[in-house]
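Protocol step 4 of 6: record predicted structures for both targets in the notebook before any analysis. Target 1:
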Amino acid sequence: MDNIYSYPQYYEIAYSYRNIPAEVAVMEEAIRKFSLIDVKHCLELACGNSPHMPELLSRGYAYSGLDLSETMLGYAEEKAGDAPVRFYLADLVDFQVEQPVDFAYIMMGSLYVQDTAGLLSHFKSMEKALKPGGLYFLDWCVDFTSLDYTEDSWVMRSGNISVTTDYSTRPFNAAKQLYRERILFSVKDGSKRKRLAHDGLRRAIFPQEFLLAATKLHRFEFLGWWDDWNWQRPLEEVKGDIYRPITVLRRL
């Protein structure tokens, strides 16, 4: 079965339920609230098809994206056209950028590391990639609940294409905080039918180890975390389920 990352057009449809302008507005509000520097250049880690890039460019920002998939980066580069963008084919665990940026972000729980050493290496790279006073904005990258036996399914459509996504996690190695993650796309593209999959290991990143890695072992300040992209819902006050929490760090 082919990999979901080999078909960026279907991947883009599968995750098109997000309100991109609204998400960029929240990131801009974070910048207004917390950034100590002017923001002109944004870096997206694990950018994939760079869904926020067009909106950021339309608001006057320069954009850089980093990803492991050459196919995804090629698709994003085509979308960018002649815009002032830069792409890096690299692993977020250990990377370098040409010049430090003013703002960095990562979406949809894409902080994929396999062990503690990988998490520490990521923050070491981020220290170099982000200017002091700049923000690191993370979406759904800290696990506040267990990933045991999670399941979700949804359908998104664009024209005559529909993509049904089935997502699940299962325990793999409790001592190493590893889970088996499976994402399945069932695609209907006119008369064509295709099934695509991602099947790999995902390491849970729990709140206190995240804070230790970021603020005690590296030069970041913790500014807070909020439920569902909502500044009125700091996690310390949330009762019940947590959905798409955002976390904001500032480079010291």
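Target 2:
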Amino acid sequence: MSASEARVALNAGNSQFAKEIARMSIRTLLKFFSLILLFGYGAVASAADAGYRLSSGDVIKVNVFGEPDLSFAEIRLNDAGTFSYPFVGEVQAKGKTTGEIEKLLTLKLKDGYLVDPRVSVSVINYREFYISGEVKLPGGYPYQPGLTLDRAIALAGGLSERASTKRMTIIRGADSTRKPEKATLDTLVNPGDTINIEQGFF
């Protein structure tokens, strides 16, 4: 092989190597951004859990460090907003935050069962929100932290041709008076809320 042929082969090899590095870099960047999105969502969900008041239909996870018999991947709150737990019995969770449930279980387990229980409670599935009126697919849909009315409408297939974005109301699931509030596309939706989209005047 001549010197010129060797240089051509070397350049071709370098070019192929550079392409492989570029492909690896793209894959690495994609993984990096995926992790950012994953942890970002986790942070939003954790922040939402902190002030969120539990109610019937929510599904929680209870973990007691080092105690598999006291740890449960899924516990669904019944219609009364309660759940049954070993050594504790019926736990009233409705209206409480996950932090309050953690403290309650910790105190109960300390009372003659465990010396230093480390309890964590998190929401893994929120109860549904409901949307009716002028949307293509009215009904109940799974709640997602940070959900806006605009996104809720998208989940319900979008607006019908007769819908009016100026005539939208929302009834809060946590509001015992069930009084409709005027809503906009940017209004935040909570678990258990009921949205209604009315017709416009044409």
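Step 5 preliminary note on target 2. The two ends are 82 Å apart (CA to CA). Residues 170 and 195 are 4 Å apart (CA to CA).
Proceed to step 6 after PI sign-off.
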